[in-house]
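Known limitations

Files may contain more than one protein. Parsers should not assume a single record per file. Below, a two-record file is shown to illustrate correct handling: read the sequence, read the token line, then continue until end of file.
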Amino acid sequence: MQKKILFIGFVFITTSSLQLKAENPKSDSTFRRFFIGSSLFMFGNFSTVNNPEYIQINFGYRITPKDVLSLDFKRSIYSWPIGIPFGPSFDKPGLNYPGHAQIQAPTIGYQRFWWKGVFTSIHALNAFETYYNENNTKIGNGYTLYLNFHLGYQIKFFKNRFFFEPALGMSYWPIRTNVPEAFKLVEREWPNYFFQPGLNFGFNF
């Protein structure tokens, strides 16, 4: 499913025939300070295998044409250690948790545009996690601080009404508390970081 999502994002970029500016000069009449958005990872919810039940809502404010603050909310479930990289081990049977975890993560973000549509961003996800065993019985609560870093490019279209932001990203979690011991045993083999793409989109107003 992850490969399908990446393919959709690639097609979205390559089939766009509109020529778009990616900075917001103050003299530009199309400049819009606010936006709402989400991620193409939401398409993962159509999967019948390992459905992440993923929800992402982004709300942002452009302080200047180059500086953006955002408040986001993310929710998902996962049954494998998040540190498993894309490859033969990803989603491989036998590496999963003895149950699953549910994340609800209010998020604060800052994005900086450097040249044309090129940007970097950092997001701090305050993930409040609920752990369940294989019988779907709650066994505990935990907290993880995820720091997400992205390098990407913003594509604008329809007179800056909509945008798409393909990016390269890395997630790193320096704080992780109250993980059940059975889950820790599975996680020990894997690092506390993960490389993944960013596929955000949004509507400016």
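...continuing to the second record:
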Amino acid sequence: MTRGAPGRGGDGGRSDPGAPRGGAAPRIPRRGALAAIAGAAASLCTARRARAFGEEGAFNPRVLLTGTAELEGVRATAPARWARELIGRTSAPARLSPSTVRADDPALLAEPFAVWGGGGDVPPLTDREVGGLARFIALGGVLLVDDFAPEEGGAFRKAARRELARALPEGSPIPIGTENVIFRSFYLLKRAAGRVEGPPKLEAIIRGGLPQVIFSQHDLLGALARSSGGVHPLSVTPGGEPQRERAVRLAVNVAMYVLCSNYKDDQVHAKFLKGRKGGGGP
């Protein structure tokens, strides 16, 4: 995936497009040029996504619910903030009223992304929930697992890994950093960040050479949460507002990565259907 990114490119002083000679094109401010490049990349990715899933390729930061869990509390505002930031920064379309989806609901398969978050242990998933997650990932879906309380022992992260191992017995998370597309799909990021600083790297289950299940020990939704009045209900530590900005940039990068992915790619889809026809699981 190739997108415009800060600090890339440059002509090394050759063929200056802003030189005032013979009808030469006026110089475009660097920031404006980068915005134009980013906008073009967003449009290209969105056009690709529009062929693959509903509502014209709009990014939908759906919250995945399991068991009897409901979307509530201060982080319930985070998905809408995520969508607004994506639109404002990249011009890519996003749903301003993101939805929720349950792991055992066939609607999980309708779109390519979901975020599963929590702050404590998770009861064992039902077989239907495990099957739903397995199918979603087999079709190329991207799942972000966001630990809301990593500084308290990571009970949710451990439980999510345990349950995802049932859906993906062949996959184990590995650290991913600045070499990975997640860190450079729009912004060039030096590290991951959220409400808590956490480790500099994310972790991911890699399939087909690309991250499909992404684990954050940073409480990304906690950093994104904001009331309708613009108040952030959760403080960001230890880096304050600059750290919150880095968290927003990470969220935008995840969204751009999803928009440029190939959910329900024909080859993956055919492989999944073949397995189902033969009686095997995904």
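Parsers that stop after the first record will miss the second one. For reference, the second record is described as follows. DSSP finds seven helices and seven strands in the chain.
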